[in-house]
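Why does residue order matter? Because the sequence determines the fold. Keep that principle in mind as you read this record.
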Amino acid sequence: MQRRLLLGHPQLAITIGRLCQELIEIHQNFDNTVILGLQPRGVFMAKRIQERLKEFVEREVPLGYLDATFYRDDFRRRDSPVKANETKIDFLIEGKNVILIDDVFYTGRSVRAALDAMIAYGRPKKVELLTLIKRKYSQHVPIYPDYVGKEVNTMESQNVVVEWKGQAGIEEDNIWLQNKAQ
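Structure:
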C-alpha cells in the first residue's frame, strides 16, 4: 500500500499552533466558547487544540465529545451495524459559540449529522468548524470549514490517515495520504 507523508510531527505542531492563533483572533478570551470534538477521530484533534489554547490564553476552554452515528443519513444503509461512540458534553451549549472539530473533512456528511446531533444539547449562538485536513473536490453537501490546517488534492481511491502519538503503538504525530486497499 503506497503512502505519502502529508504532514510530519514538526509541521503538524506548527499547523496546530497556527489554527489556535486563528481561533484567538476571533474568540480572544473564550468567555462564551466551547469545543466539541467529533467522535471518533476529531476528539484527538480537539484535545490538542484545547491543550495549545491553554498554553496561549492561560485558561481551559470547555471540551466535549459528540457522536453523530445515529444522525447520519447512511446509518440504516450499512451492511453491518455501526457501533456508536461516547457523547460527553458536561456543559450547556445553549447560547455558546461552539467550535466543532474533526480531523479530516471529506464529504461534509459527518458534519451535517453532527449539527443535527448538537441540537439535542441546546441551540448554540454560533457554530464554527475547524478541521486539520480538508480534502478538495469531494464535498456532497454545502458545508465548509471556517479553519483549515491544510487542503489536500485527493482521489476517491485514496484515504487520509491521521496518526496521533499515544495511540496504539504510534510514536509521533503524522498525516499520510495512502491508496485504499483493492
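The domain at 3-20+32-70+84-179 is CATH 3.40.50.2020 (Rossmann fold).
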